[in-house]
Amino acid sequence: SVRGTPYEEKDLFVKNFMKVFKESLPKDTVIKEFEKLDFTAIHEWRKNEREARLNRTKEEKEKASKETNAKKAYYAHAIVNNIRERLGAVGLEPPQLFRGRGEHPKQGLLKKRTFPEACTINCAQDAPVPRVFGMPGHAWKDIVHENTVQWIASFEDGLLGEVKYVSFAATSGLKGAPDLLKYD
């Protein structure tokens, strides 16, 4: 996804990428120059996968969209005071090379997949804990009952070392009611 972009030429990005890339290879692998590496096969595979995805029939696209929406629907709402409230972004970023903004010192490092073990769920004490969907053998890091905050889940961003939060959607009553009172 970086090929053909300015990141391919950035020294810091290449240096950080090489560090991560070498760690994933056998210890006795010797790589001295990034320029001599050939990622053409990977680039072609990604390009072909993208073209295949774009060239699907309307029915195939609709089926895939329904499957994706069905997976997200389980986590898209929360019941608060017996009212179904919509949540904001519930999907996490896929694993990828981190780009950052400007000259971020961690650009080029691998942003790894976030597993349930890095996620904390915030719910009422009597609420059912949502199951970990489609990941047998995994469990949430923690379940807390903080009724004074407006986040429903938090997770650790392994690369940046930050805690990020899943909150309610801007269209939810919890977010809209204070705004309405503010301007009334």
The gist of it:
One of its GO terms (biological process) is chromosome segregation. The chain is α+β, with helices and mostly antiparallel strands.
Shape summary: globular
**How big a fraction of the residues is strand?**
15-25%
Question: Would you tell me the structural class of the helices and strands?
Answer: alpha+beta
Q: pLDDT under 50 segments (min length 5)?
A: none
Number of helices: 4
Q: What's the count of strands?
A: 8
Distance between the termini: 48 Å
**In CATH, what is the homologous superfamily of the largest domain?**
DNA Topoisomerase I, domain 2
Q: What is the CATH C-level name of the largest domain?
A: Mainly Beta
Q: Indicate the CATH topology of the largest domain.
A: DNA Topoisomerase I, domain 2
CATH architecture of the largest domain: Beta Complex
Instruction: Average the pLDDT over all residues and give the rounded result.
Output: 88
Estimated radius of gyration: 21 Å
State the major sheet: 4 strands, mixed
- The count of domains is 2
- DSSP helix fraction: 25-40%
Strand order of the largest sheet: 6-5-7-8
- What string, H for helix and E for strand, traces the elements in order? HHHEEEEEEEEH
Domain DNA topoisomerase I DNA binding eukaryotic-type: 4-167
InterPro entries: DNA_topo_DNA_db_N_dom1, DNA_topo_DNA_db_N_dom2, TopoI_DNA-bd_euk, TopoI_DNA-bd_euk_N_sf, Topoisomerase_IB
Protein name: DNA topoisomerase I DNA binding eukaryotic-type domain-containing protein
GO molecular function, one term: DNA binding
